Amino acid sequence: MIRRATGLYLKEGYRHEGHYYTDKCVGDALDGQIGAFCASSLVALTLTLPGLATSANAQTAVDPAGRDAPASAAQNETPDAQSTVTQAEQDEIVVTGIRGSLQRNLDAKREASGVVDVISSEDIGKFPDSNVAASLQRLPGVSIQRDGVRGEANGVTIRGFGGDFNETLVDGRRLATATGGRSIDFSTVGSDFIGALTVYKTPDVTVAANSIGATIDIAYPKPLDHPGFRLAASASGSIQNYSKRIVPSGGLLISDSFADDSFGILASVIYTRHDTRTNNVFVHGFPGGRYAPCQLAGSTAATCNPTSDTTAPASQQQTIVGFFEQQYGAQQSYTKDERIDGRIAVQWQPSDGLLLTVDNNYSDQRINTDTFGFGIWFNQGSLRNVKLDDNGVPLDFTQAGSQTDFTAGTDSNWRRTNQTGLNVKWDATQNLEIEADGSLSRSWLNPDGRVNGKGADVGYGFGIGPALGIAITGDSDEVIPSLHSYGVSGNPNRWADMSAIGSHVTVNIANKNTDTIKQGRLRAKWTQDDLTLSIGGSYVDDTFKFRSANTFANNFWQAYSGYGPASGTTGGVAIPTTLYKGTVSTDGFIPGFGGTLPPTLINFSAVAYQDFLTGLGNPQATTIPGYNYGCCGTAFTGTFDVANDVGSYRNINEKTWSLFLSAKYKTEIAGMPFHFNAGVRQESTKLASTGVGRLPTSITPSTTDPTLLTVNFGPSQEVTTRNSYSYLLPAVDMKLELTPKLVLRFDASRTLTRPTLNLLTPVLNIGSGQRVGALTADGGNPCCSLILPTISMSRRNGIISAIPMRR
Q: Is 358 exposed, middle or buried (0-12, 13-18, 19+ CB in 10 A)?
């Protein structure tokens, strides 16, 4: 900052490279980065105010020892020049830039007692990245988690721990997330106008102690942080090679202060859109089991009926451990992702010692994806000519009579998040600061109860099913698995023979989640000389509800299964070729990878497919050849309605009380600055978990497709469990500044992490949609938490951590 034309202020009393500098700075007095900073600032000043810059250079010099020396030009100053300087002294000019932001980040890391990393905006509305996760990966030990068909950066991994083992706060508050995990989805957090990101890699008990990896605090700007009128705007367009569309993004932030900067208002809105086309080759499921010797390549057994019966011939007994690919396929997806983020913050400072802040953050994201491709299902017991490597991984195999499924899907998910908060800061005395904060955060997944997923599965098999298989011919970083012996009756030219394709399964899903967090905290901080004491507490009430309805629950998914007449079954109907939009070549499908894919994908719509089947009429009113009359009783009347999946029901309520005490002290040891920070946090939690349990009464193969299972259940029963636990979480941080460039740190702490909310259900359920070879059940455990004592030692930017685990 420049307060007068006679000098450029960096930082009063700045120590650099062992030398002490006054409040003036000239390029030749400093070396390295600081000198460059001064030089660039003086250049900017010269370009803006040439008259003042000339006067400044003439007035003041700094000798190599750092003392001010009068210049001869100053002694011969004219009255006009003196008048110019007098006017300049009355002005205040602020020079800002990314260099200042970097310096603030370094200062924050250096001054912290624990291990802390910071990314801050150089000015209001000027955050360096458009994605929060992308900014966080700049920091050492932080990497991005990607999800979805287009690899959206929706979370972070810190020191090897995923998002559910890290706590993310927004202005010190937990943010609700309807995804079911404890980590927030970073794709729902607009970053254009973020003020700063702080990552606590060692616990600060005054902030939180509920994460193994780190605590992330996202700070949004507030109007009185930068008084006066501020306007920031951003606009951009992006194009993806495959989508071939230019999509816009933009944001606007307005901030102003009034009444002598005692009252301020900030408002911002951001619109973001991404359109992408994604190609994907996948293996879903890689379970392990046992093969019989007769299944292996080179077997001379006349028959092969794998069994666990120990009295069977040795060649038929399943004794060889190995894995297999359960489903293999490829798909192409088109995704449209639109998000609107809004924020309003109001601050009032009626006196120098009192500041009130009210803010509201809003995010609305809608993701629509259309997908088409193929998928092949495998069962371990039906595999033959199996070649295994030393680790039990199949390098090649075949499966006779395989079904070939062409798939399509339309997914439409709506995510909405809103957080409202009130913060009061009061400087009660010169030494005592009191802060009170309260907020309400809510998150919704598909609040309108929409059917968010519509799926279609058509194909051929059984009588014309090929003996196809998968071969792995190289490293997975260079070669994708290759599908071979495909096509109708093994003829590769009939891979996409639309005249042989019939209907199979139809899946609709409607997920609806809500998460509501009520929270409050109170903190008092006493500061005197080099001692700081903090004491306070917090309360968090988190209620998570998960509901799902689907066509598995009523078995409607099997209504037209069987692949139709061309496959020689009584189930399924032929699909008219007019339903297909054409084919897409797989040539160069995954650039840079070898391996063989079938030549084409069939492009069709799941919605159009379901409309066709619905148009066949009501099978209860008229006989429809190909309808699976054994699947659904009289409930199916022609439309693929969803039914509540009671096994998915979860209602979780978690209440947590926390008390903390922290002390920070600064002193010197042998002339070296020493920082000591010790604190303790008491976490007490009460948990109530409700689910719905039910027992299967029968599991039978489908009458039209023996690879599908029909599950029937007995009566449902609601189950509620309650649990409570309390832990004392101490933390110690010590830092010794050996030299201006070398800092020795020691940190020890005990941290707490909890299971994700969607895993706290008290019941175990067998799902409705099951297939032969993949019968599964899911459940949770609402009784446990994980306690981790950690010890960390760091020198410069390195960190060594010892983390013994105990449940």
A: middle
Distance, in Å, from the CA atom of 230 to the CA atom of 695, rounded to the nearest integer, reads: 62
Question: If residue 460 lies in a helix (H) or strand (E), which one and from where to where?
Answer: strand 453-460
The per-residue pLDDT for 283 is: 92
**Which amino acid, one-letter code, is at 268?**
S
Predicted confidence at residue 393, as pLDDT, reads 93
Contact 530, 596 (CB under 8 A): no
Instruction: Say whether 772 sits in a helix, a strand or coil.
Output: coil
Burial of 137 (0-12, 13-18, 19+ CB in 10 A): middle
* Cβ(129)–Cβ(156) below 8 Å: no
Torsion of CA 176, 181, 186, 188, to 10 degrees: -50
| Tokens encoding 71 | 């210049």
Structure tokens at 75: 């002694």
How do beta strands 167-170 and 215-219 pair?
parallel
User: What is the maximum span of the chain, computed from C-alpha positions, in angstroms?
Assistant: 114
395 token code pair: 């390098």
Whole-angstrom Cα distance, residue 775 to residue 700? 12
SS3 509: strand
- 226-262 pLDDT, tens digit each: 899 999 888 887 776 665 677 888 889 999 999 999 9
Instruction: Point out the least confidently predicted range of 64-73, 129-138, 176-185, 716-725.
Output: 64-73
Residues 642/618, Cβ–Cβ less than 8 Å = no
Phi, psi of 492 (to 5 degrees): -65, -25
Which three-class secondary structure state does DSSP give residue 694? coil
Quick one: DSSP state of residue 4?
A: B
Spatial separation of the C-alpha atoms in residues 657 and 726, rounded to whole Å? 9
Q: Is residue 622 scored above 50 in pLDDT?
A: yes
DSSP-assigned beta bridge partners for residue 726: 684
Distance CA 274, CA 337 (A): 5
User: How is residue 150 written in tokens?
Assistant: 């287009």
CA–CA dist 659, 206 (Å, integer)? 9
Give the whole-number percent of the chain exceeding pLDDT 90: 50
Q: What pLDDT band is residue 773 in, cutting at 50, 70 and 90?
A: low
Greater pLDDT, 735 or 39: 735
DSSP assignment string, 568-592? T-SS--BPPGGGEEEEEE-TTSSTT
* Rounded Cα distance, 23 and 10, in Å: 6
Which residues touch 65 (CB under 8 Å, ≥6 apart)? none
- pLDDT tens string 570-585: 899 999 999 999 999 9
Mean pLDDT to the nearest integer, 482-509 = 95
Distances (CA, A) of 677 to 106, 115, 436, 530, 665: 20, 12, 23, 12, 6
CB 503 within 8 A of CB 626: yes
Q: How much is the pLDDT for 590?
A: 92
CB 500 within 8 A of CB 488: yes
Distance CA 241, CA 675 (A): 53
Planar angle of CA 424, 222, 351, nearest 5 degrees? 45
**8 A C-beta contact, residue 196 and residue 93:** no
Tokens 């109708």 belong to: 488
Give the total residue count for the chain. Answer: 807
- Residues contacting residue 436 through CB under 8 Å, at least 6 positions apart: 423, 424, 520, 521, 522, 523
Distances (CA, A) of 101 to 42, 104, 215, 225, 457: 18, 5, 22, 15, 54
Q: What are the CA-CA distances from residue 269 to residues 124, 177, 483, 713 (Å)?
A: 14, 21, 49, 50
Q: Which residues contact 513 (CB under 8 A, 6 or more apart)?
A: 178, 179, 180, 443, 444, 445, 446, 544, 545, 546, 547
